[in-house]
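Give me the fold.
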Amino acid sequence: MNLKERTFEEILRSPEGRTLEFKASLPKNSDLAKTVVAFANDAGGEIFVGVDDHHRAVGVPEEELPRIEEQLSNMIYDRCYPSVLPDISFLSTGGRSFVRVRVYRGSMPPYYLKSEGKVAGTYVRVGSSNRLADEEIIAELERRRRNISFDGEVVLEKPLAELDFRGFRRIYEEKTGELLDDSALQKLELAKVERGVLYPTNALVLLSDDGLRRSMFPNAKIECARFKGRSAGEFIDRKTYDYGIAEQVEDAYAFVLRNINQSGSIQGVYTVSRWEYPVKALREIIRNAVVHRQYSLAGKDIKIAVYDDMIEITSPGLLPPSIDYSDMESRQSDARNKVIAPVFRKLGIIDQWGNGLKLVAEELKDYPEIQFRWREVGLSFQVQFVKKFTDDSMSGTSGYLSEPQAVYRSSKESGEDAAPPFNEPRKSYHFQAPTAPEKLILNEIAINPSVTVPELAATAGLSLRSCERLVAALKSSGILKRIGSARGGHWQIRP
């Protein structure tokens, strides 16, 4: 997250938060030092002396500026470790003078108060306050200094040869067409050699089906709930996704689709559907929640809550310092989990070029009735898609179906709806028997001629073997034809 150049008037209109703090006068040593180390441990930030808590520009005496600058410099040098070198400057507007202290993101975290020591003196920025860091956060900061990530650390509890990751291996090889052997695992940093033995990293354990994942990461799951009304209380639908994290994204997204509404309009021979929420954006935020969550935080899971008026997604861990949700249209590709992220890119789960937030911003333009909100809550990051209700929508005449529309099925969960492979407005071809598995397969192929057989199986709620038999029967009957290779080709349906 870069510190942006803004006019002083723009700064005064901005709320105090992760990178901004106002002080009416020179604060006590401890208060200022806590803010400085918190900024240095996170994305950096600015302190303005001469602005009160109500954003009023009270100023400081001009003759006091040199003394204040010296005090600030000495205070930061004497109380902060490692050394923090702020940029201290003066501003003058409206006949008043102000001091700006600009603190940059540090390269040697954790930063802490010398007098308190690392354990009791490390602070991080949470919203507009400074919070004492616990051992897990300090460990995360130390990893950042060494340019490593938690998911890349070796797990010595079980050698690779004893780890059950058959499910992930199958998914990886189906999606990429590449063999996931020991050499590939090491190249992806999913396994590393220690004392002559190949061990998995945290990333592979998180991706695995092994009991070790459940014992080490019991909260590496997604809790989904559809509540009745606009507050957490009575459940309409509830599901926990507690298996390898590569499979969680699409299943959680499927849960959301099952519990939101869809409207449709006829355009020629097609039925074009529109969801009540921007589903591309929702899918991207769910992906981000999984790939950017802080897996080292114990006792916290991802939560997705669907209400009558809002969808709320909460992920453990503060936002990575270089990710700025206030500037979503810029390309941002930093990742907290530096092993999981490249694997997810190869699987096609996340975007390769850092366009995810830009995609969210673009789709939101087509949904002016939806307010996009984000905030840090404790040590979690939360995103909300909130309906801007009108009198018509409140009275139930918003134009969407009165009940959530169940369309797709998941192979992971028998009897549940699954996400379509793509989120474009759906053009539905109408067949004589649309409920038959063969017709559902043909419908999916009509929507996406490049869909793979595993994707078809997931959409239709079939095992891979059953789907392969149905596809073979359709091909032998002449209804279906494959043009090109299994990976790079496409399907053709007989008119």
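DSSP finds 17 helices and 20 strands in the chain.
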